[in-house]
# Entry
Amino acid sequence: MRMRPVRQLIGRWMGVGIAIWLVLMGTLPAFADVAAPQAPAADASKSGGRLVYVVPVKQTVESGLQSFLERAFRDAEEAKARLIVLDIDTLGGRVDSAEEIGRLIRQSPVETLAFVHGRAVSAGSYIALNANRIVMEPGSSIGAAAVVDGSGKEVESAKIVSHWASEMRAAAELRGRNPKIAEGMVDKNLVVEMPELQRTSAKGEIVSLTAEEALKVGYAEQVTSDLNDAIARAGVQDPEILRFEPTFFEKLARFLVHPATATVLLLIGIAGVLIELFIPGFGLPGLLGIAGFGLYFFGHYVAGFAGGEDVILFVIGIVLLVVEMFVPSFGVLGIIGIVSIISGVVMAAFDTQNALLSLGIAFVLAVIVVAVFIRVFKHRGIWNRFILKDSLTTEQGYVSQSSKEHWLGAEGITVTPLRPAGTAELGGERVDVVTEGEFIPVNTRIRVVKVEGVRVVVKPAAEL
# Structure
């Protein structure tokens, strides 16, 4: 096997690894600058303390929303805003992200108002409870904060339920609301009496309140569909409203970090790079692979989850796997490479379990896709560079040994005893011959009676 192709291929794929690193490290900071916090659009010193930030909370509660709200609150504080309105319509999301958002609201020097114009369910209800004031639109609801897993099944762990119930209770107590109701929104085993509504939530029921019910039990200060009226009730007359919206890249990042999207990107990345590695020459799969990994890390970078070290770790893993394929190290480099890749992907994600699941699904699907490509394009596979395919056939004039057929019927004399193999002289040439089993002494006249390939069979001439 020639070493030149091996060195060329190693160089080629180390180049791919370096290309991934350069693309990611070159583009992520640039995109991050575009998506970076912008200067406040207004200043309270010029608006006479009338500046109101209206911030949407209208999607799944996760770390992408958390990053966006952190930017919004920081921007509002720098602009010396009078009020932050959280425009809530969400079915909830991650508990850990909700807790961080709740802490952000509690620690904000700017007064907050939760305006529920749809649903403040689960983690959304916790966000609303942390605000200084809650105003609800007619027909809206708040509550139903039971903890569920990724499949939507209710979590029965007493430890988890107790923790989340205590968080809800603390948020209600902080703003002077009935903490028992907040606990009943989480723990279905509690009996919650609500005399204001003339009803009791029995065991097995999760508390959920309509706008009118929330007003009666003190979980809402006002029921109105007029945001300006809600702001006026909060003490801001003639408000200067600034609607704080996510940037294009923040919206894109939220889409890219979604578990389903992340799985597809990892699938494209793994399959693209492997196809280009095993069946070089296409170009397009390799570019798609780099783009898949690039978008994965870009989304997590802009969302605030990934850093440059995660990208470097991932690229090191790619390079080590490529080197292992051509310079065997008894699996050491391969194992280190796999660990590096997994670590890079997982460290860049906001949830380790989701990241491992996405990576596992993507890898299995990528193996299937690559197997199909290898089967269809096996004639272009990298292995063809190391296999000698030329065949030297008789039709092309090649023979493995000279033919013995011309000795058939020839007579000669034994040079050595035939026991049953030996040497005879035929036509002036010494030829290896064999009998059919009998012994023939030296200097005996023999005749060739059969030729089978390279096997020349003789008998004593006197017997013929």
Q: What stands out?
A: DSSP finds 15 helices and 15 strands in the chain. Residues 1-19, 21-46 have pLDDT under 50 and may be disordered. The radius of gyration is 40 Å. Residues 4-34 form the longest helix (31 residues).
